Amino acid sequence: MTCRPAGTIRTVSGPLPTSAVRGPVLAHEHLALDLRRPGRPAALLDGRHEAAIAAELADLHGQFGLSLVVEQTCRGMGRDVAALARVSATSGVAVVAATGWYYEPFHPPDVRRADVGRLVETLTRDVEDGIGPARIRPGLIGEVGSHGERPSAPERRTLTAAARVAARTGLSVATHTCLGRGGPAQLALLTAQGLAPHRIAIGHQDLLDAPAVHRRLAAEGAYVAFDTVGKTAYQDDATRLRLLLALVDAGHADRVLLSCDISRHTYLTCQGGQGYGHVFRSFLPRVRAAGVGDDLVDLMTRRNPLRLLGSRFT
């Protein structure tokens, strides 16, 4: 069993005290990824885009103080932790790597055949021994996914393994939900394995126009991720703002995470996309204009993700 010191985050460059993170955090992004399938040729971020990604992050560090990116590309998604280390070193922005399995259509064949015990062993090796030749240790289990109101049988196994490893090692879990659906079922499954809800972030809730579900997740102690900001093909930002304000007005600003989930090269600013900075350049000014003060903005963009990442096993 591995315990980390309280207030320490695992980054691709090594341990980082949470006290060293003075600026905002992007809680769910991708810097290296391959989710290409027929009809989705742009779902790719690889070496051809690395310099542009590093330049974007460096610019955001200079303009907005961006201090940390939580990179949630996991097994079966084209994970490349060596690329994350290079981007972090070039941009000057700390990066957290992740492990786990995405939702069922992206499960590798060996996962479909493995039982929970074997999946636990695989994740434990990543967490305790590190990933790749450089043995980079992940700071999060995510984005572990499901794609319906309730996880499929293979997704139940991967989510169960994620929860068990998180409970043993002190890492937290971040999830993927398809269009925001299935968050309550994910939370119930994860907590049934002994994982505390404050160490769980339920993903993509800004794609689900259901304020009552958001309040329920937050009231149970989970983080509610509004992490696809700017993806207007899925949801307009006006709806995201309304949903966010409803959650803040209900007293749950301390459960909110914000990010953009850049997951294809056409989203990069050099290719005319909204980029990693959309949340800072476009969305947060609208949040502030709606009456949300700087302290709550700092809570949602810095302190909340740091609490999620810096929690420890006790």
How are the SSEs placed, and which strands pair?
Elements: E1 8-11, E2 14-17, E3 25-29, E4 33-34, E5 44-45, H1 50-64, E6 68-71, H2 81-91, E7 94-96, E8 98-99, H3 109-113, H4 116-129, E9 140-146, H5 153-169, E10 173-177, H6 183-192, E11 200-202, H7 211-219, E12 223-226, H8 237-249, E13 256-258, H9 278-289, H10 294-310
Parallel strand pairs: 3-6, 6-7, 8-9, 9-10, 10-11, 11-12, 12-13
Antiparallel strand pairs: 1-2, 4-5
Helix pairs in contact: 1-2, 4-5, 5-6
Class from helix and strand fractions: alpha/beta
- What is the H/E string? EEEEEHEHEEHHEHEHEHEHEHH
CATH class: Alpha Beta
Number of domains: 1
> Alpha-carbon distance between the termini?
11 Å
**What fold name stands as the CATH topology?**
TIM Barrel
Main sheet, how many strands, which sense, barrel?
6 strands, parallel
- CATH H level: which superfamily? Metal-dependent hydrolases
Biggest sheet, strands in spatial order? 8-9-10-11-12-13
The residue fraction in helices comes out at 25-40%
Taking all Cα atoms into account, the compactness measure Rg is 18 Å
Strand content bin: 15-25%
How many distinct helices? 10
Low-pLDDT segments = 1-5
CATH architecture: Alpha-Beta Barrel
Strand count: 13
Throw out a few tags for this protein.
314 residues; three-stranded parallel β-sheet; TIM Barrel; single chain; disordered N terminus
